[in-house]
């Protein structure tokens, strides 16, 4: 059995993730006025129309391409040795230490403790009608899945086919796909939890929601 409480303690010890911002294409680098310790903001706005903090610009063929932060956090590293130099696509430029929100902590824990049933191909996915009806009426956690159970309809290139669940028996604790949106191959569709562990996991989720202190 996975020690969920130990996972939470590990996250408390390092409550952040380090995001490496790399050059999306070739060009000459000019950094903005950022230094280690600078606080940055990510994309915002109702439609994601507000860019994050400007980190640098890449000049290619006399055109300046801005490079913005895509998450809020604190700048950890700036590769100033690249200032004014031509870089290839994928070259690390800045490292941002992004402190985890409550929802991100919960998502991280769930991805580690649940069995993730993944998409076998890029396509749109739907619950079969009987399961969909139950989910809409009582929530995903009202559905128990078993190996060999027909669970999804896969829609791709105007063709539909059933998809059988393969994995341990349990309750659908988390749903990761949305209707009418393509899911990439290997992306999780649902997270399944053994019935005897649901109370333990929910207890940790509740603790995160009440006790986790988010850093600005």
Describe it:
- With 216 residues, the chain is of the alpha+beta class.
- The chain folds into 2 domains: 4-99, OB fold (Dihydrolipoamide Acetyltransferase, E2P) (Beta Barrel); 103-211, Beta Barrel (OB fold (Dihydrolipoamide Acetyltransferase, E2P)).
- Helix content is 21%, strand content 38%.
- It has helices at residues 4-13, 102-113, 129-138, 198-211, and strands at residues 16-22, 27-31, 39-40, 54-60, 63-68, 73-78, 86-87, 92-99, 115-118, 123-127, 144-145, 150-156, 159-164, 170-175, 182-183, 188-193.
- A 4-stranded antiparallel sheet has the order 1-8-6-3, with no helix packed on it. A 4-stranded antiparallel sheet has the order 5-4-2-7, with no helix packed on it.
- A hairpin with a 2-residue loop joins strand 4 (54-60) and strand 5.
- Helix 2 runs antiparallel to helix 4.
Largest sheet: 4 strands, antiparallel
Radius of gyration: 22 Å
Give the N-to-C terminal Cα separation: 34 Å
* Mean pLDDT over the full residue set: 91
User: Given the structure, what is the number of helices?
Assistant: 4
Question: Which helices and strands, and how do they pair?
Answer:
Layout: H1 4-13, E1 16-22, E2 27-31, E3 39-40, E4 54-60, E5 63-68, E6 73-78, E7 86-87, E8 92-99, H2 102-113, E9 115-118, E10 123-127, H3 129-138, E11 144-145, E12 150-156, E13 159-164, E14 170-175, E15 182-183, E16 188-193, H4 198-211
Antiparallel strand pairs: 1-8, 2-4, 2-7, 3-6, 4-5, 6-8, 9-16, 10-12, 10-15, 11-14, 12-13, 14-16
């Amino acid at each position: 059995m996975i020690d969920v409480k130990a996972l939470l303690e590990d996250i408390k010890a390092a409550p952040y993730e380090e995001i490496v911002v790399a050059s999306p294409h070739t060009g000459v680098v000019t950094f903005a006025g950022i230094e280690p310790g600078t606080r940055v903001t990510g994309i915002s706005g109702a439609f994601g129309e507000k860019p994050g903090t400007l980190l640098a610009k890449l000049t290619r063929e006399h055109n300046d391409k801005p490079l913005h932060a895509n998450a809020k956090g604190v700048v950890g590293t700036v590769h100033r040795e690249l200032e004014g130099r031509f870089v290839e696509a994928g070259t690390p430029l800045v490292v941002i230490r992004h402190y985890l929100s409550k929802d991100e902590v919960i998502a991280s824990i769930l991805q580690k403790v649940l069995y993730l049933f993944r998409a076998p191909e890029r396509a749109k996915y739907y619950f079969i009608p009987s399961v969909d009806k139950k989910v809409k009426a009582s929530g995903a956690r009202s559905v128990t899945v078993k190996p060999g159970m027909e669970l999804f309809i896969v829609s791709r290139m105007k063709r539909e086919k059933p998809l059988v669940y393969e994995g341990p028996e349990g309750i659908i604790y988390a749903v990761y796909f949305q209707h009418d949106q393509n899911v990439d191959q290997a992306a999780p569709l649902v997270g399944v939890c053994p019935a005897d562990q649901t109370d333990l996991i929910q207890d940790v989720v509740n603790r995160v929601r009440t006790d986790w202190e988010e850093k600005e």
